[in-house]
Each structure stands twice: as structure tokens, then as C-alpha cells.
Amino acid sequence: MLLDGVFPAITTPFYPDGRLYLKKLEHNVERYSRTPCAGMVILGSTGEAIMLGDEESRDVLRHAASAAAPDKVLLAGVGRESLTETLRLAEYAAERQYDAVLVRTPHYYAPYYGLTNSAGGLTSNASGMLTYYRALADRSPLPVVLYSIPKFTHCELPLELVAELAQHPNIIAIKDSSGSLERLAALVAATRSAPKRTVLVTPVFTAFTSRMMIAESEAAMMPGFFSADLLAGTTPLAALEPVMKTTRKKEVGFQVLTGSADNLLPALEAGVNGAVLAFAAPAPQACQEIYTAWKENDPVVAREKQQRLVDSSRIVTGKYGVPGLKHACDLNGYYGGVPRIPLLPLTVDQRVEVAAAMSDLRN
């Protein structure tokens, strides 16, 4: 699966009493589907995945997939603390036609995984984590995207471990939310020798999703696509095999995605393929404009677009996190609403600060 471009890490809407607000989730997904972003991440950190039960997670994945446009790449956050539970959710995501699974590092027992903090930094003796991801990739019906977010898990996948995992044919990428440009560049270098994969893309070399394949297969079976012989009854219907007419092939290596909007352009210049961004939840267009300008080799515009959102991203995402992002969504036409307790909504003064930060980035 091709993961070039910007992927908003979308929020999960709740009623004021904490119940899932699935109609608003569908509204948001439909609106993201009309943006130029490459796709969406459902149930990432911004989606408060850690706050949801298993059945709720399945409800969110089901409703989001049903509302998404076929051309948008969908990544499902399925990380759990055990291999067994992560696999169960990965299998469900496959049933709902997701394109890949995003799997954060298990962290509750991190001191026993070989990822402990020490005076010398994070250790690389991570046999437990290596076993976890390899076993997951062996059995997952969808490609696996590693997810390292040390701000919340308090552990980080060592470079050597990522480089080794990148050799697995079903581990296709990493989302790194360390915020470190040096680490991103090191990840690009460490995984450069990973095997290439042949993936289907559209004629303009954007991702060809599983839902696009289904839609095209169904369209190919419609009468408007039948030959004269078939319509005349001389060709049996069972002999018709739908042909994908809108695909090409592309060689893709291991892909590195940044999780920080405030240094998106420097990360792209360092060699990352794209980004999964919390700040793209309220401001997908502003984030996409940076990527588009970079892709079109317009460094002046790219720098201008990047600078425009640096302070806003640091306030909304960095300072206030999920509550700040949800309020910013409310300001920009997406339903944000309230987070789940123990996260609390913003105070009046905090809302004023977020509104000021978003004033130049309104949809």
C-alpha cells in the first residue's frame, strides 16, 4: 500500500455523557473524504483509542469505513497490549476493508520488553517487541505500520529494531511521533535497504485502495461495461472476469511517516514519505498545502505554508492535546465535542487561545 501524502489522525466524537456519537463520526469522515488528503487514520492517539472498549472500537471502525470515499486510504489503529487482542482487531479491520493497520508499541510492561529508559538511553535488546511485531505481521491480513509515540508510551523502537522489522514483507512503514528530525533521517537511512514491494496505484500514481478495487469490480459487472457478445448472450456471464483498467504498478520501499505538523516540511526534505498528523484533524487543507508545494518543487511556497501553522500546531496539539484539537475541529466545520474523562474540555480562556491560534487556518 502506497502511503505518500498527508493523513489526518481524526478524532472520535462523543455525546456529552461519553457515548459514541457515530453520526458525527460519519459526518466528519465524509467531509475529510472531500479534502485532497491521501486518507485517514481511525483510532490513533487523537482518536482516544486508548479510551475505547473493544466493541466500541469495532463500531468506530465500521461506521468510519462505511462513510469514507473509496479513494481514501484508511489506516486502523488496532494496537493492544497483547498479540492476541491486536490480531483480533486487525482481522476485524480487514473485514471492513481497511488498507493497513497502525500498531502502537505495547508499553505497560515496557521494562520487560527491552525498551527501558536508562542512563545510556533506550536499549536495543528488544526481543519481546521483535517477537510481537513479527508474529503480528506473520498473521495479520493487512499490512502493518509500526507506531512509535514515546510521549505517551514512554518507550521508543530502537533504530536497529525498526531496520530489522522493515525486512518483513508485511511490515510496510513506521509512523514516528518523536518530533525529532534527526531520528526521522536516521529511520530513512536505516530502512533504505529494505526489500521493495510492488503495489497497485492509480494512473496518476496515488494509492489504489481495497475499496476502489471493489467499486471497480462492481462497475465492471454492470451492463455498460459488457461486450456486445456478452449482451447478445454468446458469452456466458460466469466467464467474465473484471479487469482493473485504472491501475498501474509501482515499486515501493519501507515508508517513513512523521507525526509532527510543525516540522512537516523539514521531515519531507529529510526523506519521509508522508505524515499522519493530529493537527490535520482540524486543519487538513493547511497541512496538505505544505505537502503539495513540496511535491511540486516550490520551496518558497512550502516554507511559507509551513511557517503559517507552526505556532498554531504547537498551541493546539502540543499544549492542549485532544481537547484542543476537538475544539479546533468545532471551529473548522468538523464535529469535535468533548473528550472522555479523565480528559476535560477546554476552559473558556483556553478556548479563546485556541480560537486565536486557528484564526488564520479557518476552513
Briefly note the structural class of the backbone. Answer: alpha/beta
The CATH architecture assignment of the largest domain turns out to be Alpha-Beta Barrel
Poorly predicted regions = 116-124, 225-243
**Count of individual domains:** 2
Output the radius of gyration: 21 Å
CATH class of the largest domain reads Alpha Beta
Specify the CATH homologous superfamily of the largest domain: Aldolase class I
CATH third-tier fold name of the largest domain? TIM Barrel
DSSP summary: helix tally: 14
User: What fraction strand?
Assistant: 5-15%
Shape: globular
Q: Give the helix proportion (percent range).
A: 40-55%
End-to-end separation? 30 Å
SSE string, helix = H, strand = E?
EHEHEHEHEHHEHEHHEEHEHHHH
Q: Compute the number of strand runs.
A: 10
Q: How would you sum up the major sheet?
A: 8 strands, parallel
Mean pLDDT: 90
Strand order of the largest sheet: 1-10-9-6-5-4-3-2
